[in-house]
Amino acid sequence: MPFDGANEHKQNMDIQHKDNGQKGMFYVAVDGKTEAEMTYVWSGDQRIIIDHTAVSEALKGQGIGKQLVQATVVFAREKQLKILPLCPFARSVFDKTSDYQDVLF
């Protein structure tokens, strides 16, 4: 399910999610290759820590990183989790987005 970015004209990508109970990631794959990812680790049962975000050169500037943060926020709300964004990019998105404060740890 695609998540809308902040700018309507930016392309929405199909964001996928993997989680093994200890760590997980939201990512965009193009032709079977991961082109953007945001990884997290579980810290207890009610908190995840975003530790890394990367977007390939081919997808940079399209708002994909923000869409990955948004996907993580939606996941946290659905599961009633809190997020600790240690990744500098994710932290900056949280700092600029007041709507995400409800899931911030």
From TrEMBL:
Taking the record's annotation, the residue ranges forming a coiled coil are none
The record, for InterPro entries, names: Acyl_CoA_acyltransferase, Gcn5-rel_NAT, GNAT_dom, GNAT_YJDJ
The protein's name: Uncharacterized protein
Give GO MF terms, alphabetically: acyltransferase activity, transferring groups other than amino-acyl groups
Query: What Gene3D superfamilies would the database entry show?
Result: 3.40.630.30
Q: Which Pfam families match?
A: Acetyltransf_CG
Known SUPFAM superfamilies for this protein? Acyl-CoA N-acyltransferases (Nat)
Residue intervals of the N-acetyltransferase domain:
1-105, 18-105
Please indicate which superkingdom the organism of origin belongs to: Bacteria
